[in-house]
Amino acid sequence: MDIRLMDLDTPLFSTLHRIMDLTEDAEKNLSAPTRTYVRDAKAMAATPADVKEYPNSYVFVIDMPGLKSGDIKVQVEEDNVLLISGERKREEEKEGAKYLRMERRVGKFMRKFTLPDNANTEAITAVCQDGVLTVTVNKLPPPEPKKPKTIEVKIG
After folding, report:
1. What is the pLDDT along the chain (156 residues), one digit of tens a residue?
2. Hey, is 2 helix, strand or coil?
3. What's the Cα-to-Cα distance from 99 to each of 65, 89, 94, 95, 106, rounded to whole Å?
4. Which end of the chain is more exposed for a tag (fewer CB within 10 A), N or C?
5. How far apart are CA 92 and CA 61, in angstroms?
């Protein structure tokens, strides 16, 4: 109900009314995803990957046609998150040429993978060949089983 209808249109009540409206708007905005989140979600959805497990490693394969190695970043965040990102830029238009159709994707791409506990983040290799990026994460050797400790029994 609008307080102005009750003949309470004083400066104090109108200020309270504006504050209440701002609070409602702020609550709506807090539940909406941020621009960064939406951009990252689109970049991740547009970057398909194959993940394979071998006895001694994990292999991530991503198609990246037309990209140079300087356009691709492979990083490890938070000790166990593999981040593959980069950007494909639009070619500069040449004088007199115009696009009739543009279907190739341009813009940022990104994928994040949570690595298992046995992934050796110190032994990661990345090779881009023929437009296919292959990132190999070696596995740590399995821990040796603990040997039972024998305690000598003394007679006292």
Report:
1. 554 555 556 776 677 767 777 655 555 556 676 776 666 566 556 678 999 999 999 999 998 877 887 889 999 998 899 999 888 877 777 788 887 887 777 778 888 999 999 999 999 999 998 889 999 999 998 888 888 888 889 887
2. coil
3. 20, 15, 10, 12, 14
4. C
5. 29
